[in-house]
Structure formats: C-alpha cells, structure tokens
Amino acid sequence: MSAPSCPCCCHSKGCCCHSKGNIKILVAPSGFKESLEPQAAANAIEAGILRADPTAKVTKAPLVDGGEGFVEALVSATKGTLQKLTVMGPVRQPVSSHYGFLGGCRGKTAVIEMAAAAGLRLVPQELRDPTSTTTFGVGETIAAALEAGAEEILIGCGDSGTCDAGVGMAQALGVRFYDIHGDDLPLAAGGASLNDLAIIDRTERHHLLRQVPIHVACNWHNVLCGPEGVARVFGPQKGATASDVDHLARAMDKFASACSFELGVDVGQAPGSGASGGLGAGLMLIGAQLHPRYDIIMPLLDIDPLLADCHLVFTAEGSIDFQTPRGKIPAEVAMRAKARGLPVVALAGTIGEDANVNYGVGIDAFASILQRPVSLETAIAEAERLLAESAESAMRMIMIGRSLQKKSEYDVNVE
To answer: pLDDT tens digits, residue range 40-87?
Structure first.
C-alpha cells in the first residue's frame, strides 16, 4: 500500500512531514521597517523554532531588498569593507551614513543604499512630509564612492522617506533644474518644488558619471506617474495628506515631462522609475541602469543552494498584503522554494488587504506576530520577542503535522 499523502499545505513528499531525523529549516526573512534588521529577524525566528524543537537544524539567510541593511548584507556576504561618512539627511540636517566596497573579484565595486542617507527612519515623526524631504545625501554618497575610486556602483532602493524624484540626488551631482524663468530650483527643496520645473541641464554633472556604470536594484513594479504612481501609492505611508498626494502627483508629472524630453524615453511609466519616491527616475537621469532588485541581489546572496538542503522555509516581513507578490522578499523566497516543492511559512507584523493573493505565489501559511491589539510603538519596541513567540507557535503546529504523519504511516504499516 502506498504511503498516505502529505497532511501539510504543500502536498510534497520532499517536505518537512516526510523528512527523516532532524528537520532542516531555512530562515530567510526581510527586516521589519524601523524595528528589526534582517539579521535580528532571523535570530528571533531561529530562537522561536529552537524553543519548539531543539533538535531542528536551522540555517539563517537574512535577506535584503535594497532598503535598510542592503550595504551591510552585501559587504558581509562578500567580505568587503564599510565606509563611513556624513551627508545631508532627508530633512536637511547632517546624518551619519555609510556605503561599502564589495570583496571578491568584482573589481572595485561600491554598494550604496539610499535609505542610509534618505530613509524614512531618518525622518522624525513630526517632520514626515514627503513634499519637502530630499535625496541630496544620496547624491553626496554617490560622489564619495566615485571619488574613492569606484569602478562600478550598485545602488539599493527601498525604505525611503522621500518623494522628490531623485532631484536632490541629481543636484548634489551637478545636474541643474530650471523654472520657466530660467532660475535654478531651490537646492534640496523636496518634491513640492518640482511643480515649477521646466528645463533640466546635465552638462555640469559629475565627470566620473560618464565613466562609471551604475546599476540600481529596485522594485520593478513601481512607476513614477499615473494612478499607480509613486505619490499615490506610497505618499500616504510617508506622511502625505490627500492634498499633498495630489500636489506630489502633479510634481512627478512635471518631472517626468522634463526628464523624458531630456532622455528621449517615457520616464513616467518606465519600470522602476517610481522606486524610492521616484529616485529610480532621477537615477535614470544621471545615466544609471535600473534592474529588478533580485537580479542584482540574488547573485550575491544566493539562497538556492540553501533551499536544496532544507525541508521547510520560514520567511518574514513587516506586512503581508496584496503588494507582497509585487517584488517583496517573502514572495521571492516562496517562488524559489516552490520550485523545489518546499513548504513556506511567512510571519508578518500585520496582515493587510487581500493577503490571500500570496497563496498563489507559494506562501503556504502566514500569520501576524501580534496576538492582541497593541500600539505601534509597543509593536516596534517588542518586535523581537513577538517574532520569536510567533515562530515558536508556528513551529509547534508544524510538529503536530509531523506527528500526525508519522502516526498515519505507522497505521498503514500495521494494516
């Protein structure tokens, strides 16, 4: 008599229910915005799993999507070096930032994350106004990398606190922006200033931009303009009011028109142009090439060999919702895991609108780490504990499934 089918959600004979001996688990989370870095999230999940099953063999692969932690993760993975610097932050105050150089044999490749200079974490709650925040510090970081001898630059987009279409970044690199009277737009004035934009002049941009290729890891689904444009989709998350959103949407349209004329391509609907508050479009203006984020990241943080040697995958992110399949880490991990028939559990700070669409991309089960109503401040402060407890709970349920499978196989053999 054949063995009974797998009782868990993935229905695969290679999954955790059919594994013999110690279960092998890959923990591959993203970070939790403004709360847990990817490494801290991986550590918390591991702790919860081992509380439930001390015999489990856990491998951790904390992942980044271009946002916070991008530089440190890639520098660590390649045994590179980290460089510290001070730049203008998103609210025009100095902030301590960083970039890195990759190790290995890629030549002198610099890696930059925009969030280190213009991330939402750097914008105090009372100053969250994406009509005025700036990416100027991102441009200063690019200039520093160029002048330190970079032969190639990789830039990660994500976790931004801005919506200025990368104009601040471009200004820091010498690009000029004029209004209809021929006057310069104010320096580092944020997205609101773009409603006066008429002409872009790139002739005085940093001379090394013509020599050094720049590749950008971004969410390929984010566009600059239209109903799904960056101002309307992400503006409210950064503190924009309904009026601000309309104002920013018009500003993005103005920038797209001027930038498209300068470059000879439709910037407003270009894939990735809306990444990080339109920074993707600004990077196009200085000659960078945009790429789907995982085309850049996964060759450096390759989890495929780890997937080949596990029975079960845990992933995590701050929110699981209808946007998760649009380039978020849990969906990317799930799709790769499903190619190998592996079950995937996703843990999240919140379960949002239409989260069920994630079953279609390979996430077999998801759960919020919040077991009771709490304030945002409490959830952020206690995220590590809450994530560990949620991982423990999920693991205990998986152990029940394994126990039932073993009993079912025993009953079949007795018959």
So the answer is: 999 999 999 999 999 999 999 999 889 988 999 899 888 999 999 999
Q: How buried is 292 (Cβ within 10 angstroms: 0-12 exposed, 13-18 middle, 19+ buried)?
A: middle
pTM above 0.70, yes or no: yes
- How far apart, in Å, are the Cα atoms of 91 and each of 87, 123, 146? 11, 7, 24
- Tracing tokens 């780890």 back to the chain, one arrives at 306
Helix or strand (DSSP H, E) at 41:
helix 38-52
Neighbours of 55 (CB within 10 A): 8
Sign of the torsion formed by the C-alpha atoms of 238, 241, 246 and 248: negative
Angle between helices 38-52 and 383-414 (to 10 degrees): 40
Strands (E), 52-145: 57-60, 81-88, 94-101, 109-113
Of 284, 360, 281, 287, residue with least CA distance to 326: 360
Q: If residue 199 lies in a helix (H) or strand (E), which one and from where to where?
A: strand 197-201
State the pLDDT at residue 185: 97
pLDDT band of residue 21 (cuts 50, 70, 90) is low
